[in-house]
Design brief:
The chain has 19 helices and no strands. The protein is mainly α and about 450 residues long. The chain has a single domain, classed as Hydantoin permease, CATH 1.10.4160.10.
Length: about 450
């Protein structure tokens, strides 16, 4: 029988709230404030929102609980966790895939995060340079990319309590306050009521198979599942903490921020007479036009992009921590060395993504695939690899380790776990793998 791992000086969250804020910060990112609104706008508004909330509960929460449990039981990174629970088996390859996925996502995610930082100044000074001209200026976007990676490094090298948790307690309340202030301004614009109606009054007659798939995909990708981030954060949880309620809180806060982002964006869109189905350019192309046309818009716009930058930073922190924890646990590196080496690798991997945004033509449209290097990285690692990772975690937890063997770990801090164990067992054995397989199939169909 495998027993749980020990801390071995790795560090631990000082409080349950510290963990929840840090883990929610990991999940909250560009996917909530950039991706969620445009996907909602393309899929009919309120009906999509209802489906998304259902998918978070059905798919996201069980997989999150599984990741957190594996992490706390093993007290290891994704590679070390699978090696400890199933020694000598190929399952450690899933851990390696998670570490690699985190590094690759960080490499291009930091490029987009750098754009958000640049847009704070751009909006504040009223610069009207088009998005394409902005992203194709290497002398602007390269320093922004570098600065964002350095910010991430400075937080992560501080460790769990003095780095990640400390900054989560500062950044998350700021993010929430900024979002509330911007929502108040948005819903008080003349004509905002039509946006609220679009977003909050569902018309289920518009629901199609595509709508359901979009909700399923958004719920899955918005929670940072499948790359070992939640597993790694779970490895720093105290035994007294309730894993089930912790997972529920993280999912709740992540979903809350996404819902609030819609309350900010759709009233403003409709108030300005614009359509909600603007696609991926909604945040960087459409919103600056809206900010420029309302009183005090440059300040509101700067606050919005500050909000977006904070959300991105809380995610890049967790992405770097996955690789850092691997080097500290498995290679016995000092944290500072691990952080800087992993960051340099991410910086090198991110250069083609920067150059693919209007700077180097052949990287802008790669042969055979017909998409940019950044787009290809996002498709492979931000979509396919996350789905595969979550599928493998569901199968591992549901069929190999099994809920009955994990029950002792889950009962630590959650005495009433026995009542929900059968439900979690069914979800992780059958429901979650089936839903993730559907997402994977349509990902491949969509690109074919």
């Amino acid at each position: 029988m495998v027993t749980g791992g020990t801390d071995s000086g790795r560090g631990q969250w000082s409080s349950k709230m510290g963990f929840i804020l840090a883990a929610a910060g990991s999940a909250i990112g560009l996917g909530n404030i950039w991706r969620f609104p445009y996907v909602t706008g393309q899929n009919g508004g309120a009906a999509f929102l209802v489906l998304y909330l259902a998918c978070v509960a059905v798919l996201g929460v069980p997989v999150m609980i599984a990741e957190l449990t594996i992490g706390r039981f093993s007290r290891r990174n994704p590679v070390g966790a699978f090696k400890m629970i199933r020694p000598g088996s190929p399952w450690k390859l899933i851990g390696y895939a998670g570490v690699a996925t985190g590094i690759c996502i960080l490499s291009y995610y930091s490029v987009l995060a750098g754009y958000t930082t640049g847009y704070i100044v751009k909006t504040l000074i009223g610069n009207t340079t088009a998005y394409e001209a902005f992203t194709s200026n290497v002398w602007i976007v390269l320093p922004l990319f570098l600065v964002f990676i350095v910010f991430t490094v400075l937080v992560v090298q501080g460790g769990i309590k003095n780095g990640i948790e400390r900054w989560a307690k500062i950044l998350m309340p700021i993010l929430l306050l900024l979002l509330v202030a911007l929502i108040i301004r948005s819903v008080t614009l003349e004509g905002a009521g039509r946006g609220l109606s679009f977003y909050l009054k569902p018309d289920f007659s518009k629901v199609t198979g595509k709508t359901i798939l979009a909700a399923l995909g958004q719920a899955f990708f918005s929670l940072s599942l499948g790359m070992g981030a939640m597993l790694t954060y779970g490895s720093y949880l105290a035994k007294k903490d309730n894993i089930v309620t912790s997972g529920l809180y993280v999912a709740f806060f992540d979903t809350l921020i996404a819902v609030m982002a819609g309350l900010l964006i759709f009233p403003a869109l409709f108030a300005m007479g614009m359509q909600p189905d603007q696609g991926t350019g909604l945040v960087f192309k459409v919103l600056p036009m809206i900010f420029a046309s309302i009183p005090g818009g440059h300040l509101i716009g700067a606050a919005f992009f500050l909000l977006l930058s904070i959300a991105a930073l809380t995610s890049t922190i967790s992405l770097l921590e996955v690789a850092t924890a691997y080097m500290v646990d498995e290679k016995h590196w000092l944290r500072k060395r691990a952080v800087w080496v992993m960051a340099l690798i991410c910086f090198a991997l991110g250069l083609p993504s920067i150059l693919s945004q209007g700077i180097v033509p052949w990287l802008e449209k790669l042969p055979l695939v017909g998409m940019s290097f950044l787009g290809l990285m996002d498709y492979i690692f931000g979509n396919v690899m996350l789905a595969i990772g979550a599928l493998m975690i569901s199968i591992f937890f549901g069929w190999l380790w099994k809920v009955k063997n994990a029950a002792a770990e889950l009962r630590e801090g959650c005495p009433g776990f026995g009542r929900i164990a059968p439900v979690l067992d069914i979800m992780l054995k059958f429901v979650c793998p089936a839903l993730i397989l559907v997402v994977l199939v349509f990902l491949f169909i969509d690109v074919a």
